Batch of 4 targets.
Target 1
Amino acid sequence: MLTPLYSALPRDVVKAIFLVCLADGVVAVSYGSLAGSLGFPVWVPLALSMIVMAGASEFIFIGIVAAGGSPLAAAAAGLLVNARHIPFGIAVSDLTGRGWRGIAGSHMMNDESVVFGLSRPDKRQQRAAYWLCGTGIALCWPAGVLGGSLMGKLLPDPSVIGLDSVFPAIMLALVIPSLKKKVTRKRAGSGALLALATVPWLPAGLPVLVSLAGLMMGGRKNEQ
C-alpha cells in the first residue's frame, strides 16, 4: 500500500512526511520515558499509543494520573484537548474512505496527517499524503513509546536529554518556507498572538484551537 502512496507525491513532500514521522517517534521516546520514570508499567503508555494515538492527550493523561488524579478526569481532559479532531474529521472525510478504510483512516487522523493531506493540490495527492503520514506516525509513535518506556526505567529524569524539543524544532523548519508569503505571515502571526494571549486563561491545548481564528485574518488568499 505504501508504494503507490509514495509514487503519488513529489519527493520533497515525502521527505517532509518522513521527517515529521521521525520527529514524532523521537517525541514518543520522550513520552514513553516520562511514563516509565513516573512508575507506569510499559503496557500503559504502549496501549495508549496504539488506542488513543494522540500525543497531547496522552501526556495529559499520565500527568494527571501520576499527580493522583482520577483516570476518568484524566480521560475527560484528554478528550477536551483533542476536541479539534471533530472539525478535522469533517475536513478529511473524503480522504479517509468508507467502511473499514474509514475506520482505519479516522484512527490515523492527527494534526500532521490532516495538514499534509489538506495542503496538496488534488484529491489523489491529498489521499496519498494523508495516508502516508498517518501510517508513518501509526508505526513510529508506538515504537518510540515502547523504547522510551524501557529507557524511562533507567533514567531518573528523561527531560534532561531534551527529546521534547526535537518535534517543535523540525516543525518550525518545515513551516519557515511557507512564511515567504505575506498573507501567510499575517495569519500565522495573528494565530500565534491569539494563542499566547489565551495561554494564562485556558487549559493546555485549547489555545491552539483559538489560534485557528488567525486563518480569518491577513487579507486575500492570493496576496504575496
Target 2
Amino acid sequence: MRFQVRERIFGVGDDYWIEDADGRKVYLVDGKAMRLRDTFELKDVDGRVLVDIRQKLVSLRDTMVIERGDEKLATVKRKRLSLLRNHFRVTMVDGTELDVSGRILDREFAVEYDGELLAQISRRWLTVRDTYGVDVVRDDMDPALVIAIAVCVITLAEKERDD
C-alpha cells in the first residue's frame, strides 16, 4: 500500500490529507495547536480518530507516544548510543522493537523489524514537488500505525535540528 504525503506537513496546528496511490483522501492528520506538547490525531475520512500521537512531557530524550483510544501502542525515540544521527527505535507495547533509519530529514528512510523491511518512506517515487511516499510493504502492518511512526520520527528529527 502506497500513500502520498504533502511536504508542508508535520507542523503542529497544521491539518493535511494523506492520499492513496490513486489520489483518494484516506487519512487526515489533525495537528493540535496551542498545546504544551506536540499533539496530532490521525483520522479516517469519516473523522474517526484512529491514533493519537503525543510528545511525552517528561523524558530524558525527546519521546513521542502513539495511542489508540486509551491504550498505548508504541513509543518512538532516538536510538541510544547510535553512531548514526538518523536512527530511531519504536518500542511496541508488547516489547517488540522496530528500527527506523535513513535520511529522515530528506524523507528517505525505512522501518524494519529484525532486518525485515516493513515500510519505506521516500521522495523518489513521486514527481509532485514537496511530496513523498509511504510504502507499507507487509500486508499485515497497520497503515495508520506506520504513518504515525513516520509523523513521530520526522517531528523528532526536525525538533532536534531546530534545537
Target 3
Amino acid sequence: MRVAIAGAGAVGRSIAGELLENGHEVLLVDKAPTAISVERVPLAEWLLADACEITSLDEAALQRCHVVIAATGDDKVNLVVSLLAKTEYGVPRVVARVNNPKNEWLFNESWGVDVAVSTPRLMSALVEEAVSVGDLVRLMRFSQGDANLVELTLPPESALAGTRVGDVAWPDDTSLVTIIRGNRVLTPNREDALEAGDELLFVAAPAREEQLEDLLSVRREDDSA
C-alpha cells in the first residue's frame, strides 16, 4: 500500500516509521527544509514541497496513493490537503490530524476527510477510558458514514453480564467490533458471553450512543425488592 504523509514533523515521522515496519510504501512531504531529515526515516521517500499546491501533489503522484495522511500542525493545511487529495486525485482513504478540538467539526466528508484524529480529544478519551466503568467514551470519529469508535467497560451490575452477544438487542446503526478481556483481544461472535469488566469497542452512529450506554449500564432489579 502506498501512503503519502503531509507533514514530516515528529507525528508524521512516527506514523511513517510504523507503516514502513508493516511493509507499506511511504512518502513524506514537507515544505520546510529543516523538516527533511532523511536519516531519521531512511526507508521513506522524501519530497520538499508545499502539500497545498497542485504542482507539488502532482510531483508526489498522489493519484497512486491508497491513503493520504494530513499530519501537519496546522489545521488549515490539513483541511486543504484532505480536500485536494479526495477531489483532485480520488484518494480512497484520507486521514487528517485535528490540532485544535474547536476545529473538529470541519473535518468531515465535505473537506474530503474520511477519518479525523484529534490528538487532544484522543488523549482525554484515553484518560477517561482508564478510569471510567459504565460510561461511554468516544475514541475516534469517522466522517464517512457519520460514525464514532466508542468504548465502554461493562460494569459488574450490568444486566448484560453473562448474556450472549447474539441475544442482545443492539441499537440500530451499532456494531460491536472487539471485546478486550484481560490481555486477550476477542473478535465477538454470537455465542460469546459478555463478562463484567469486558472492554467493549463499538462503531456507532452518534444518535445511538446514549441508547447504547443505557443498554450496557442498566442495572439488574434488586432481588430483595
Target 4
Amino acid sequence: MDNNDILIRLRYALDLKNTEMVEIFKLGGIEVSRQDLPKILTKSKDSYDDEIAEDEENIKCDNVMFESFLNGFVTFKRGKQEQKPGQPETPELTLGRSANVNNLLLKKVKIALAMTSEDMLDIFEKAGIHVTKGELGALLRKEGHKNYKECGDKFARNFLKGLAVKYRGE
C-alpha cells in the first residue's frame, strides 16, 4: 500500500469531505488546492512504478506530505495545542528517518480520534482479525525500542477497514 492508497482509505473510512481534506493538509503545513486533491486521491495503476503515476497527472504523496497530513488531522480533530516554552512550533517529522508509515498511521489516528487501546482492539475485531494488547503495544512503540514491531500492510489495511465499519456502519 502506498501513501496515496492509505489517504484514499482513510478519507473513505472517516467520511472526510474535500474541503476538510484541504483544511487538514493546511493545518499540517502543506498547501493543497481543491483542484490538486483529486490528483492525490487517485490510485495509481501500479504503485511500484513511480513513472506511471507522474505521467497520468497524479500527485504522489511522499512521506513528508503524508506525515504532515496526519499531523494536520490531529490538529483538525483535537484543536491547536498550546506551545510549551522551548517546544518547536511544528512537530518534528519522523518519516524522513525511515519510520514505518503504517506504524505512524496507527499512532496518529489513535491520537486524533482520542482512542484507547481497547478502542483500537475493537476496530481490529470489526475488521475480522484478533490482535492482542501486547501486539498492539509493540506496533505503537517508538522505533528502536526492544519490543517495537513494524506494522505490515495487512494490519494497516484491516485497521482502516475496521474504521470504516465503525464510522460508516458497513
